Each structure stands twice: as C-alpha cells, then as structure tokens.
Amino acid sequence: MTRKHQQLIAIIGPSGAGKSTLIKQYLTHRPYAHIHRTVTTRPARSLNDDSHIFVDDITFEHMFHNGDLLGMFPYEGYRYGLTPINYANASLVFVALRAPVVAQFLSFYPNTFVIQIEARTETLCKRLHMRGDSSRAQATQLKAEITSGRSIASNIISTDTAGAYHQFEELCDSFLLT
Fold first, then answer.
1. Would you say 64 and 81 are in contact if contact means Cβ atoms under 8 Å apart?
2. Using CA atoms, how far apart are residues 30 and 99, in angstroms rounded to an integer?
3. Residues whose CB falls within 8 Å of the CB of residue 169, separated by 6 or more in sequence, listed in order
4. Which residue has the higher pLDDT, 134 or 93?
C-alpha cells in the first residue's frame, strides 16, 4: 500500500463501547498507525491503563497555561486535554474522544474522519460494571452520548455484532489505498 497522506481518525462513543479495544487490536500489526492519547487528571483504572496520559492537577494546569494543550474539557470532575498531533511516520493516527469535544477537535483538525463505536445501552452498562466503572453506567447519559455521536460520525460500528472488528479494520485500511 502506498501512503497518500496522514489521516486522522477520531474514534468516539460512550464508555464501554470498545473504542480502546478496537484501536489496540488494529495497531498490533500496523507500525504505520499510532494512537494519540489525551492528557487527563483522572486516575488510571489499573496499572495497565494506557488509555490516556495521566497527570496530576498541577502538571495539567502547567501544560494548559504553557500552551501545550490545544484545548481542555471537564468531564465527571476531571480535566482532559489534547496535545498537538505530530507523527511524521504515521499514515493513520487515532484519537479517542468524547462526542461533546469533537467539534472543538475538528476546529484544529478539520479533515478528521469520525467513527462512532457503540453498543446497546444494556451491553454498555454490563461492561462498565464488569470493569468497576459503575459510576459511568448511567443509561440516560449513555443513550444521549450515542445519539449525539450519531449526528457527528461518518460511520458507526456496533460492538454488539460479531463482525465489529472486521468492519473497523476494513474501514481504517481503506484510508491507506491510493
């Protein structure tokens, strides 16, 4: 495959939808693809949690005031920020975002392709409870985020289906074709 250009792909969807799982699986055998992690003051869920760059409030504040963050978004009592994206050797760069911040992100990176990852609300609640994230298992909020994301996304993939990863893989690989 010939590299045409660098494609940014924003992966959105509610907590528990499978955003990180799909991205990690895709990156396994693709050295030309990278994930750009947001910075957050939220504590890691576990020692293996690499979903963000975790910093304390003082470090976050320092980054924000130094202009190291393009923007800041408060969510559930924590702050999230995005550093500039610069991966010279990457054909695909993923960033996992919440639907409410996509408009802000697109103001910096307007040619970003947006994919929503979703599942039935019951499935999301079950997954969140299983990973010890019960505070995020609010059906009304999850439904609202799904609805919001559907109006923004170019494509929607449901992780309730057995072929979700294959669909994700085909869609992402399509950006590499000349």
1. yes
2. 26
3. 26
4. 93
Pairing state between β 71-75 and 78-82 = antiparallel
Residue at token pair 């955003």: 19
Answer for the pair 41, 81: CB distance below 8 angstroms, yes or no. Answer: no
Angle between helices 121-130 and 139-150 (to 10 degrees): 120
Show the tokens assigned to 162. 């057995």
Mapping DSSP to helix (H, G, I), strand (E, B) and coil, where does residue 37 land? coil
- 46-78 pLDDT, tens digit per residue, is 888 888 999 999 999 999 999 999 888 888 889
Determine which helix (DSSP H) or strand (DSSP E) holds 40, and give its type and residue range.
strand 39-40
- Which run of H or of E encompasses 26? helix 19-27
What is the DSSP secondary structure assignment for residue 134, as one 8-state letter? G
Single-letter residue type at 57: D
Q: Which two tokens stand for residue 64?
A: 């924000």
3-state secondary structure of 34: strand
Q: What is the DSSP string of 47-83?
A: TT--SSEE--HHHHHHHHHTT--SEEEEETTEEEEEP
Model confidence at 151: pLDDT above 80: yes
Phi-psi region at 115: left, alpha or beta (left = phi > 0; alpha = psi -120 to 50): beta
- Tell me the whole-structure pTM to 2 decimals: 0.88
